[in-house]
Amino acid sequence: MMKQDEIGKHGEDQQALLERPSWRLKPANSADFDLLADIRQQAMKSNMEANGLFDHALYRQSFKDSFDPASTWKIIEESEVLGFYVLWNKQDHLYLERLYFHPKAQGRGIGADLLNILKQQAFAQTKPIRLEVLPQSRANAFYLRHGFELIEERDEEKVYEWRGDETIKALHVV
Q1: Is residue 60 very low, low, confident or very high in pLDDT (cuts 50, 70, 90)?
Q2: How far apart are CA 75 and CA 171, in angstroms?
């Protein structure tokens, strides 16, 4: 898994990447669970319902069972948490388990900027990024727009992968 202290191991300019003009990343801790669960539920409400997942209590419990603050990063603007992501460093890939934004923070380009940071990290480690998305989620179009390819389609999810190519060189901080 990608621990919070490992982020600095992937380039001297990583700190500059963590602090954007309008937002920054901050490690999560166990006290953040309720806040992040609420953001996740608000971000996913329409997608959950579109995919037949109406049991919000069960969905929250599932999140609680897998919550690992050491692999979780909050996306903050001023003092407000806009969203969060969970990244695991697997042997042969980075697994983006979660990326959620509060609805009022969606559509501002922060997700695209964050993906660029994660792509740089993946490039530095020469690993692809993989993730899973609900079949009826609007996130499918988002990841396709940002260079992810559909590699597997299951009834309950679609699996995407991003592999660094020549375009990452334009993103890489020298």
Answers
A1: confident
A2: 20
Which residue, 64, 119, 111, 61, is CA-closest to 84? Answer: 111
Task: Name the token pair of 99.
Answer: 């990326």
- Spatial contact of 131 and 148, defined as CB atoms under 8 Å apart: yes
Give Cα separations from 84 to 73, 149, 165 (angstroms): 5, 23, 26
Pick the closest to residue 149 from 137, 133, 171, 136 (CA basis): 133
Nearest to residue 123, comparing CAs of 13, 33, 37?
13
Residues 149-163: tens digit of each pLDDT: 999 999 889 999 999
Q: Is 78 left (phi over 0), alpha (psi -120 to 50) or beta?
A: left
